[in-house]
Amino acid sequence: MTRSQQLFEHAKDIIPGGVNSPVRAFKAVGGTPRFIKKAEGAFIYDADDKAYIDYVGSWGPMILGHNHPAILNAVVETAQNGLSFGAPTELEITMAEKVKAIVPSMEKLRMVSSGTEATMSAIRLARGYTNRDKIVKFEGCYHGHADSLLVKAGSGALTLGVPSSPGIPEDFAKHTLTLEYNNLDEVKQVFAELGDQIACIIVEPVAGNMNCIPPVEGFLEGLRDVCTEYGSVLIFDEVMTGFRVSLGGAQQHYNITPDLTTLGKVIGGGMPVGAFGGKAEIMDYIAPVGPVYQAGTLSGNPIAMAAGLAALTEIEKGNFHDELAAKTETLALGIKALADKHNIPMTVNYVGAMFGFFFTDIEKVTTYQQAINCNQDQFNRFYHMMLEEGVYMAPASYEASFLSAAHSDELIAQTLDAVDRCFAKL
Ligand code: PMP
Fold first, then answer.
1. CATH number, domain containing residue 78
2. Whose CA is nearest to atom 12 of ligand 1?
3. Is 155 a residue whose pLDDT tops 80?
4. Residue 169 has pLDDT above 90, yes or no
5. Catalytic residue at 317?
6. Ligand 1 atom closest to Cα of residue 59
7. Ligand 1 center to residue 304 CA distance, Å?
8. Domain count of the chain?
9. Fewer CB within a 10 Å sphere, N or C end of the chain?
10. Residue 226: in which H helix or E strand, if any?
11. Which domain, by its residues, includes 140?
């Protein structure tokens, strides 16, 4: 028995499924999740001391690679002064100003402790601001596990076959209208019928929780126009895309201005952080200025702020995002070329430093239905072969993959060599 197997058996006695977040349990791909002991740069090391080139990056935050010295130093230094005060600090102003400078549509913002909190709060705010109950989301998009949003969701909810979770009263779920991603006609139809009851559209501007699906041309522009026409709030959930598809996120990449934005992952540099913000007029509906309540004991936590600020400061330097995007393209196109070489039907999608590959003969994957009809069995076999090769990818085919600045050209070449060997055996 490996140490990971021992730990997994032990964990299952005391933690449901042995994990604190479902996808970690390897249920989709089978086998034993690797228990991780430490991580450095592009590598993670499991409890059996095996090293893996990591393309999960803690599901997005580790855009600089693991254990980056600037983040580590910021955390250690800030911790000397105390871990949490539950009172405002200057660091929070610095953080808010830094985020606003990078994402100018966030005229005012508030820090929270997770992506789930960010989207949950943004939805409540949009409802309070518009005085409307209904919200629009898209099938296969995941926005965290708040009740209104766990309806036809992606990511682990989709992987585990519970896209709409029990425990969410029908009376809540009925206010969530779930439409097809990249289908603007459907959005227009629904708004023509119910537009004056719809508080907001929440969308992943590049979907990353049903593998990686970029918006088709005109989709995001269309959502912007519809929201403007009907007085609904457009929320870009940039928890995943923020600071990743470009420095200013998908809204900068596609040049569309949402009313509200939610952030997470990179903004915390690996600490538990999220944020939501947008038009000052809407944000001023939040307590204590306005009537919509939202709060958090650990919100704006100094250690988390220090880690996040250090991360944002590093990624602003030089041509960080261009270089990361170029490496991502090399890897994505490299995988596709190897699939062609081995006659394996495959499509790749990538935007900035986010990519996904689909075992399918469909030329361009743009919809949820196409994404879920890919060859899962082939993915699962490939997954385990890659693990053996020392390459760690997301343990489910419905997840996007991430590169970090620590993934050197050499490591990408090594990864492609491993892919070549695995495809030969597939
Ligand atoms: N929104 C998106 C787009 C996400 O990808 C995620 C998490 N993967 C969330 C929200 C929820 O964030 P958290 O897991 O930090 O609650």
1. 3.40.640.10
2. 115
3. no
4. no
5. no
6. 8
7. 17
8. 1
9. N
10. helix 219-230
11. 73-315
**Phi, psi dihedral angles at 238 (to 5 degrees):** -105, 30
State the pLDDT confidence band at 183, using cuts at 50, 70 and 90.
very high
- Tell me whether residue 152 is one of the annotated catalytic residues: no
* Overall size of the chain counted in residues: 426
- How far is it, in rounded angstroms, from Cα 423 to Cα 125? 48
Residue 21 has pLDDT above 90, yes or no: yes
- Predicted local distance difference test score (pLDDT) of residue 171: 87
Helix (H, G, I), strand (E, B) or coil at 256: coil
**Residue 164: per-residue pLDDT:** 79
> Considering the domain boundaries, does residue 12 fall inside one?
no
Q: What is the distance in A from the centroid of ligand 1 to the CA of 142?
A: 7
Residue 37 lies in a domain: no
Q: Which of 134, 137, 265, 327 is catalytic?
A: 265
142 in catalytic set = yes
Share of the chain above pLDDT 90, in %: 93
Residues contacting ligand 1 via CB (< 6 Å): 59, 114-116, 119, 142-144, 155, 204, 208-209, 237, 239-240, 264, 274
Q: What share of the chain is helix, strand, coil (3-state, %, to 5)?
A: 45, 15, 40
Write out pLDDT tens, residues 33-83.
999 999 999 999 999 999 999 999 999 999 999 999 999 999 999 999 999
Pairing of strands 260-263, 274-278: antiparallel
Kindly report the three-state secondary structure assignment for every residue of 40-98.
EECEEEECCCCEEEECCHHHCCCCCCECCHHHHHHHHHHHCCCCCCCCCCHHHHHHHHH
Catalytic residue among 142, 181, 254, 350: 142
Sheet arrangement for strand 391-392:
36-40, 43-46, 51-54, 391-392
Q: Is residue 161 part of a domain?
A: yes
Mean pLDDT of the chain: 96
Give me Rg for the CA atoms of the chain.
21
Q: For residue 18, tell me if it sits in a domain.
A: no
Report residue 127: phi and psi, to 5°.
-65, -45
Cα separation, 237 vs 221, in Å, equals 15
pTM above 0.90, yes or no: yes
CA of 342 to the centre of ligand 1 (A): 35
Q: 274 CA to middle of ligand 1, Å?
A: 9
Question: Which tens digits make up the pLDDT trace of 245-266?
Answer: 999 999 999 999 999 999 999 9
For ligand 1, atom 7: residue with the closest CA = 144
